[in-house]
Amino acid sequence: MLTTAESSPQGPAAELSPNHISNQTACVLCGVFFLFVCFFLTAFFASKVEHESKHCNGKGIQRPGSSAFDRVYTANQNCGHAYPTFLAVLWCAGLLCSQAPAAFAGLMYLFVRQKYFVGYLGERTQSTPGYLFGKRIILFLFLMSVAGILNYYLIYFFGSDFEMHIKTITSAISPLLLIP
To answer: 6-25: string of b/e by CB count within 10 Å (b at 16+)?
Structure first.
């Protein structure tokens, strides 16, 4: 019977290196942080819907006649529908490509969704910049995920590892997300 030290040619230290543990911990903490922020933003948006509903007519949630309520409700629904996609591409980009640019893009996306929601409360044309900016960030995270998957297959089939080049490129491109 082989133990873990005998099964690995480099011993158990290679399997549980400090870099590997810290990367896993950082990824988990980053994911938990984003889940909490998404939860609080969703709660904020829901409270705005409730406030606007009570402000319009006092009692129930369904107020189809009020344009202010319709705007708040629609913005809340739009933000709620976008979060599963955001979380999926954020996790994939962070795990498959690079954690720092993915975390930066994730924070930018959360700020953009807040801008979108607040812009939607005004006139619908005010929400357009936030919407377009959010689409660009989701595309960036998606492309990071695709680059990580392609790198995996390049390693698997050809033995070529482009991880450092991909991390350099994504780290250089991520500040460009700030350009409106």
So the answer is: eeeeeeeeeeeeeeeeeeee
For 24-77, how does the pLDDT look when each residue is reduced to its tens digit (9 = 90+)?
666 666 666 776 676 677 677 667 766 666 665 555 455 455 577 777 777 778
Q: Spell 117-127 as b/e; 16+ CB within 10 A means b.
A: bebbeeeeeeb
Q: What is the DSSP letter of 22?
A: H
Q: Residue range 120-136: average pLDDT?
A: 78
Q: What is the DSSP letter of 159?
A: -
Q: Using alpha carbons only, how large is the chain's radius of gyration in Å?
A: 21
Supply the mean pLDDT for the chain: 74
Residue 69, token pair as written in the block: 């309520």
Whole-number Å distance between alpha carbons of 54 and 47: 11
Tokens 């790198």, residue located: 151
CA–CA dist 113, 130 (Å, integer): 7
Which residues, in sequence order, are CB contacts of 175 under 8 Å at separation 6+?
104
Position with higher pLDDT, 180 vs 108: 108
Provide mean pLDDT across the span 80-102.
85
Beta strands in 38-143 (DSSP E): none
